[in-house]
Specification:
The chain is of the alpha/beta class. Helix content is 31%, strand content 28%. A hairpin with a 4-residue loop joins β3 and β4. α2 runs parallel beside α3.
Length: 237
């Protein structure tokens, strides 16, 4: 079965869902024929099984069966907005590992990176995150926020547990299966002492995610894996 993306809200039982141009190109690469079995994901919890049809010049998928999945427990990654290419790779991998939200942080050391992620790169970043769920089969794609100054991010409401990725931190604590989690990861070179103080003052707990210092994208992915394992332990006692 071939997995494709659909616009959120477009999946309705019995409907013929038109495919976007990018998905049609994907089918051409896969050499899919009419009546091929297709799975559609809208990235907002709905998946559909159907069959590929031709409607004039457009390809559509006739939806035969719908299922919906509840939104998973919040898994928020707030990451220093460093090099845009590495951040793009992070967005793809984070989508596959269960992140629900990705927040690029404008930090003191990130602003000096010439190739840093900027507002103009967000559309491509969001597309890469959505595209990644075709590989993983996840029903939910992560939201990708506008870049935020660290202080503004910390001023916004937050629920649940908060970790600060820190090579000098403690081992990761246990995590109940349904608990929201936010992890703050510094840019290349880490958070400054002042930024770290802000995070600690906001209730972030320093947590060590590996035996050595990690690059920002590696630390973020390690946080996702660590959180998944902690939630599995919480789920099974």
């Amino acid at each position: 079965m071939i997995t494709l993306l659909a616009r959120p809200g477009s999946l309705v039982a019995g409907a013929a869902v038109p495919l976007e141009a990018e998905e049609e190109r994907h089918l051409a690469v896969r050499r899919a024929g009419l009546d091929s079995a297709i799975e559609l994901l809208d990235g907002a919890g709905t998946r559909a099984d159907g069959r590929l049809l031709q409607d004039g010049r457009r390809l559509t998928v006739r939806v035969e069966r719908l299922t919906t999945e509840p939104q998973p427990a919040a898994m928020v990654l707030a990451v220093g907005a460093g090099d845009r290419d590495r951040f793009g790779l992070l967005a793809e991998q984070a989508a596959q590992l269960g992140a629900t939200r990705l927040v690029p942080l404008e930090t003191d050391r990130a602003v000096s990176v010439a190739t840093r992620l900027r507002h103009a790169h967000l559309e491509r970043l969001r597309r890469r995150a959505r595209e990644a769920i075709k590989q993983s089969g996840a029903a939910w794609a992560p939201a990708v926020d506008e870049p935020l100054p660290l202080a503004e991010f910390l001023s916004r409401p937050r629920v649940g547990t908060a970790w600060l990725a820190d090579a000098e931190g403690a081992a990761p604590p246990g995590l109940p299966a349904a608990d929201p989690l936010t992890v703050a990861v510094g840019p290349e070179g880490g958070f400054t002492a002042e930024e770290r103080a802000l995070l600690l003052g906001a209730g972030f707990r320093p947590v060590r995610l590996g035996p050595h210092r990690l690059r920002f994208e590696t630390a973020a992915l390690a946080a996702l894996i660590t959180a998944w394992l902690a939630r599995q332990r919480g789920r099974h006692g």
